[in-house]
Each structure stands twice: as C-alpha cells, then as structure tokens.
C-alpha cells in the first residue's frame, strides 16, 4: 500500500466529520439506540464494541441511512443526512461501507464490482475506472483475481475486494460493520492488515468489531455500547486497562479471559 | 392430411399470426411486467399500491374478458387502435390484431410482474444495500444489481408465463384474428372427415413451439447459473 494516495483524507484532521446528536431508534418495542451522541473527527478511527444486540451495527448503519432514525440528527461534513432520493444517494457515495457478509455483486466480476460505482455514480470513463480499480485491487492484494466472480474467491479475499469497492468511491469516511465476523480465523488477519494500513494512511473510520487486537492497535478511540446506549468512550489504552463502567468491566472480563 | 397440405399457405399464415401475437405481446409483457415489479418493490408507496392493484385486478380477471374489453368495450370509451394498419405481404396487422396484442400484454404482464418479484425476493437484501451504499439511486440499484440477478432466478417461472402466453394467443382466434386456432376451426368446418388429423397437426405444431421455448429457457438457465 502506498501512503500518498489517501493523503487528502487526513487534510483538516481533527475537524468534526460525522456528528450524531441525541439519536433515537426503535424497532417496535425495542429501544435500539438511546440518546446517542457521537462525534467522529476527520482522520479518526473509532472502534465500536459491545455485546450482541447492543445496537452497534444499527449505529453504524444509521450513518449512511441504511437504517433510518426516529429522532435526533446526523450530519456528515456539516450536512444533515437527506431524505430518501438523489441527495441521499449522493451522500452515500461519500461514505464507504463494508458489510459483515461482504455483499459483493454476485453477477459481476471482481473488477466490475469495483468499477460499478465510479462509472455509474461518479461518471468515470470505463478505462480510467478499470485502471484505478486494478490499482486498488493490487493494494488489497487481490489484483490477480480481477476477472473472477465473487463466489470463486475466499471470504477474506471477498472482504478485501469489498474494501477496494468502497475505496474506489474515494469516501470521506469508511464504515465497517463487523467486517471479520463471517471469516475463518486464518483470513481475519489479511482483512485486518488492510484496515490497519488504511487507518495509518489517515482514513476516517468507524469500525464495529469484536477484534480487540485491532481496537488496541488501530483505534484512536473506543466506544463501548450496551443495550442501545453508549456506556463509555475512551482511548483504547485506558478502556482496556482501566474501564470505568461496571458494564464494560463485565464485558471485558468475559472476552479477555481466553 | 390433405386438408392441411392443400391449405398449407393458410396454415403457415395462421401460425405466423400466432407467433406475431406471441412475440410482440411477449416482449411488451416482459417490459411492462418488469416495470410493475420494480414499482412493487420501490420506495414510492402510491406506485407500490397502484402496481399491486393492477396485478390483483388483471390477474383475477379471465383472459377472455380482458380481450373482449379491449376488442369491444374499450372502443366505446374512445380507446381504439384504428390507427394501426400494417401490411407485410399476406400478413395484415390491423386494429383487431392490436387490441389482442394489448389485451395479451396487459394480462401477461401481471404474471410476469409476479414471476420477477419472486426473483427479486430471491436476491439477498445485502446486494441492494451494497448497491445503495456505493451511491446508486433506486433505479440504478434495480438496473445494475437487483434485476439482473432477479431475472436469473426468474427464468423458470418466466418461461412458464411465456409458454402460457403462447397458448393463450388462441383466445385471440375467438376475437377475429385469424391465427392458428381460428384456422384450425375453419379447416374443421371445411373438411369434416379429417378432423382428427387436422387437430393432431395443429396440436403437434404447438407442442413443437412450446418445446423450442422450453429449450431456450433451459439454455438461459444453464448459461446464467455461474455467479
């Protein structure tokens, strides 16, 4: 990976980029997100952890409005998230998303997966889009698989392609919704390595994960959620060695024992 | 056999009408049905409702009634096809033919819509989410990601719908289009001693035509299996 390509992403480091204010979300009776206030600054890597059902995936998905919210506001780069329609599509183009289940377009080749957005959304010429896609695929180490279909790749390779697909849109922020949870253990590292180098290049990232090692090495801040609320946020160092809430102590006690 | 052989040109012309009815209505019903399916899963609730009302009304109405509507009732309220009159050699496509094409299209589109919707439901939700996440608007999500996969999953039910359409073209024979069924009936009248042979010949041609359709559907299914 080359560092200079993502340099613009780190420009204006420290300014608020994603701001959630008093966000509420219900799924029927379940209060899925409670009073969420969260600011992600430019160039920051925020790792969201917490037990299953704590609302961390929902939180991640509200940022590009794959989940709608009931109350509160979410702004990206100062702009409130628009309603469904063209403006929302334009906003989503600025937010890269990587899913737990990869969601590569099954009927398109790896190369087509990465060029679809740049060609159809950004209006890039096919040649230029393919050149850029091949560079990105090389960066994530799957350049030699460009002509294959997603089903012919391993999970780790598919997830790296998914990261390349998101990067091809040159997003302002990347959302990772449990990117390694569907992977075999030996493939987790290859995906995390890509994510770590992205973080090092100054990409703004919101990462929902159970990978505590990644949180320790790459995160600027750890957000701990439980029962739909943010219980604690802190630097990874502080959070892992000296959690302040009982809920976090309990959670860490359960997962760090092994 | 004489009945058919002596009138071979008329029989061929009749099947040409059958095939024209089928091909034109078939293509149009695929287009209309796909649009309806897209509306039914779309974000606009009024259009969703309209498309589902269309399917309910049309699918619950017998084909003969739909055709009679376009042939007899619709002209009375000013909806006629008198502007259509095209002639290729012996084949003449007039307002009657067009009314039948429209009726068959309207009728078949409801079934196409449901076949494609079953295909859309077979496409994983994550595919559409990923397409939205890269910034494609609804139309782009459908066109680039969901429908191409939905079509693949819809090939078997779509083939059934189109086969039904091919056979349904015979209803147009009752409304003045001289397609295969109407020709068979008139030959039956003229050659009363050869009814069995006449019937068998027409049935056989239909069997062959449907077999060709099934063959094409099977090939498409196999070609698109990867991915």
TrEMBL record, chain B:
GO terms for cellular component: ATP-binding cassette (ABC) transporter complex. Keywords: Amino-acid transport, Cell membrane, Membrane, Transmembrane, Transmembrane helix, Transport. It comes from freshwater metagenome. Signal peptide: none annotated. The lineage of its organism: unclassified sequences, metagenomes, ecological metagenomes. InterPro entries: AA_ABC_transptr_permease_3TM (IPR010065), ArtM/GltK/GlnP/TcyL/YhdX-like (IPR043429), MetI-like (IPR000515), MetI-like_sf (IPR035906). Residues 15-217 form the ABC transmembrane type-1 domain. Pfam families: BPD_transp_1. GO terms for biological process: amino acid transport. This is Unannotated protein.
């Amino acid at each position: 990976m080359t560092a200079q390509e993502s340099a613009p992403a780190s420009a204006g480091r420290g300014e608020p980029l994603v701001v959630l204010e008093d966000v509420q979300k219900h799924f029927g009776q379940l209060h899925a997100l409670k009073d969420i206030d969260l600011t992600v600054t430019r160039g920051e890597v925020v790792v969201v952890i917490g037990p299953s059902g704590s609302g961390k995936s929902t939180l991640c998905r509200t940022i590009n409005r794959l989940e709608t919210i009931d109350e509160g506001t979410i702004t990206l780069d100062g702009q409130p998230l628009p309603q469904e329609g063209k403006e929302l599509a334009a906003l989503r183009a600025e937010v890269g998303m990587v899913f737990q289940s990869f969601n590569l377009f099954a009927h398109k080749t790896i190369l087509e997966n990465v060029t679809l957005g740049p060609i159809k959304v950004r209006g890039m010429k096919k040649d230029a889009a393919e050149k850029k896609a091949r560079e990105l695929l090389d960066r994530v180490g799957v350049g030699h698989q460009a002509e294959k279909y997603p089903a012919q790749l391993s999970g780790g390779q598919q997830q790296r392609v998914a990261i390349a697909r998101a990067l091809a849109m040159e997003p302002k922020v990347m959302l990772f919704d449990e990117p390694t949870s569907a992977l075999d253990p030996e493939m987790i590292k290859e995906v995390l390595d890509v994510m770590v180098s992205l973080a090092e290049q100054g990409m703004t990232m919101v990462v929902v994960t159970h990978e505590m090692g990644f949180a320790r090495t790459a995160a600027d801040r750890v957000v701990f959620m439980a029962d739909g609320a943010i219980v604690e946020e802190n630097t990874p160092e502080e959070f892992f060695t000296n959690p302040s809430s009982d809920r976090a102590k309990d959670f860490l006690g359960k997962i760090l024992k092994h | 056999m004489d009945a058919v052989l002596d009138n071979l040109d008329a029989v061929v012309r009749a099947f040409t009408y059958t095939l024209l009815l089928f091909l034109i209505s078939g293509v149009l019903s695929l287009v209309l049905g796909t649009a309806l399916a897209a509306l039914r899963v779309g974000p606009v609730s009024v259009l969703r409702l309209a498309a589902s009302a269309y399917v309910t009304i049309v699918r619950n109405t017998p084909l003969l009634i739909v055709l009679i509507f376009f042939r007899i009732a619709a002209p009375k309220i000013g909806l006629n096809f008198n502007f259509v009159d095209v002639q290729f050699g012996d084949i003449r496509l007039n307002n009657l033919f067009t009314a039948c094409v429209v009726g068959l299209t309207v009728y078949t589109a409801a079934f196409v819509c449901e076949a494609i919707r079953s295909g859309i439901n077979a496409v994983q939700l994550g595919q559409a989410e990923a397409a939205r996440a890269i910034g494609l608007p609804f139309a782009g999500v459908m066109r680039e990601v969901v429908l191409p996969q939905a079509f693949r999953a819809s090939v078997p039910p779509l083939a059934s719908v189109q086969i039904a359409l091919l056979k349904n073209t015979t209803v147009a024979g009752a409304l003045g289009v001289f397609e295969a069924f109407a020709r068979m009936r008139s030959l039956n009248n003229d050659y009363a001693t050869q009814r069995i042979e006449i019937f068998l010949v027409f049935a056989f041609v239909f069997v062959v035509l449907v077999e060709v359709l099934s063959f094409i559907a099977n090939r498409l299914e196999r070609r698109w299996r990867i991915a």
